[in-house]
Write a structure and sequence with these properties.
Length: 98
């Protein structure tokens, strides 16, 4: 799952094109959690910001965001609401023309 909108290297769809990604566990205050590491840098994986990052669904955007996460956040707009917005914009344009 993405973290906010950013691509998460622990996502099962995330792929490193250089095969440098490996997942390890770390413990912090008695709790263990998974961490994505990079063999090229020797540090933690930076996810979608890396030039070698890829997605199996092609959902990785150029700014490092996940298109699938953004798709879920967009709420559908009804036709009536859209029509009201268009009318409001046209009314403002008509006022400027007078």
């Amino acid at each position: 799952m993405p973290i906010d909108d950013k691509c998460n290297p622990l996502c099962p769809l995330f792929k490193c094109t250089r095969n440098a990604l490996f997942v390890t566990t770390k413990s912090y205050r008695g709790k263990t959690f998974r961490v994505a590491m990079c063999r090229l840098t020797g540090g933690e994986c930076i996810g979608g910001e890396c030039q070698y990052a890829s997605c199996r669904l092609n959902a990785l955007l150029p700014d490092g965001k996940c298109a699938k996460a953004l798709e879920k956040k967009v709420k559908p707009v009804s036709d009536e609401e859209l029509f009201k917005e268009i009318q409001a914009i046209e009314d403002v344009d008509d006022r400027w023309l007078r």
